[in-house]
Amino acid sequence: MQLLSRSTFTPLMIGTSLLLAACGGGGSSGGDDVDTGSTAPQWVEGQFANYSSLANQCTASLTQKLWLRSWSNDTYLWYDEIIDRDPAPYSVAEYFDLLKTEELSDTGSLKDNFHFSMSTEEWDLLNGSGASVGYGMTLSLRQASTGVSRQVTVAYNEPDTPASDAGVSRGAIIVSVDGVDVATANDSDSIDTLNAGLFPSDSGKQTEFVVRDLNADTDRSVTLTAGTVVSSPVQNTKTITTDSGKVGYLLFNSHIATAEKGLYDAMTTLSNAQVDDLVMDIRYNGGGLLAIASQLAYMVAGDAATNNRVFERTSFNDKYPTIDPVTGQTLTPMPFYSETLGFNTSLLRSGVSLPALNLNRVFVLTTPGTCSASEALMNALRGIDIEVIQLGDTTCGKPYGFYPTDNCDTTYFTIQFKGVNDKGFGEYSDGFVPSTNPTVDSEVPGCMLDDDLTHALGDSDETLLSAALYYRDNNSCPATATAIARAPAKNTFIDPGFMLQDTRNQNVLLNNRILTPQAMEQ
């Protein structure tokens, strides 16, 4: 889905603005500054103009590319690994795609998998209210049975949306889109049809889907009309009564601004219910605002565990050992926020004390769609010795963040900082891995399990939630859990942020155009 995921942002400090990214920005660039004077700026290898002098000159594509180049050279975490190419042969979008490291991590994976851009209009809607054009369904793409190239299944839907109104719910398989078979489509025209239908860009677009609902024996046809869908980032808060106490459960899908009120309400409900344990379902949470993650961590752990402790320490590239290059402020650790920050004052004002469960452990349900701020949440809790028990699959691996930055109506996301917890740990670029016998810090006590699309989220019989309840009673994994040695099934979640693309080596490639609809942050 996107799982518009997307990432996290900057360590938000009280009093700063949400995006902290005014058009263009300032900052001095590394290398030799170029005095652009009254002449049009030009590319000179190894020389970088101050990017503030190039900002918002939108009629000249070369100037836009030079702004991207200088901005990246100044703030990108691995700026010295960017190849300084002449921008002339490339479009603005193509050139931005090249302004990142091509180096590999120690395990042989690409070091930077979180480099993307989107229209500023789209980003503002998504970040501020979770609004995007679509049908309100998040999709899971996975390899299916032998002979079938792909299977797209509904992972969940938003309430009161075209998908939910038509009964297209979790577990429904998308068989075809406007007559194109999802499983076997492999030519460019067919892929284009799938993309256009699954990820509409315009409200009012009608698409005919053939779906097979969960446990159904036959397919049915349904026509969905795309509209502006507003995400409900916090859903399905409930208390599960067991013989050994009360277990709180909540589904948390995105660290966007409106999540502050949703989490406040959910944790107040669970606090009033006096739950003994908590299961946080963040399997589809691709990230967002780091400050939201800090608030949630506080609400889990409470005052005693978080007092004078650090949620996350951030660091930028070696040009800025003590200063945030975007805000110009001295680097200070992000605390565990114990009050509301007023991300959306129409929903919840700032300065309100947050509820707290005061737990010493928490169960988290994860998939590869669990990313960024969600991983920072796990890492921060472990940093103050709150026991985190992980049920599900390996997370995405993004201990990095960025400030969404606008120039000429496009918002760019490039990795600018990395974070560590109170103990100084932050090396989980290959993800957090559930393990029955953890041996390294990126392995978390828990059980390796595939996402169960055959049960509703929050159903006690759903595999991940069931495993959490079993682990709680037995301090061990159920028999259905697999050994850590197996290659995790990297299900990919798609939605407006991830696009299907035709490739020579695969029928389908997922390319996150936004990463954790939210990109951001982590």
Automatic annotation (TrEMBL):
Keywords: Signal
Keyword Hydrolase: no
Domain of life: Bacteria
GO cellular component, as recorded: outer membrane-bounded periplasmic space
GO biological process, one term: proteolysis
A single MF term (Gene Ontology): serine-type peptidase activity
Entry-linked Gene3D superfamilies: 2-enoyl-CoA Hydratase, Chain A, domain 1 (3.90.226.10), 2.30.42.10, 3.30.750.170
Pfam families named among the record's database cross-references: Peptidase_S41
InterPro entries: ClpP/crotonase-like_dom_sf, PDZ_sf, Tail-specific_protease
Domain Tail specific protease, chain residue ranges per copy: 246-398
Secretion signal span: 1-21
Annotated protein name in UniProt: S41 family peptidase
Species in which this protein is naturally found: Shewanella algicola
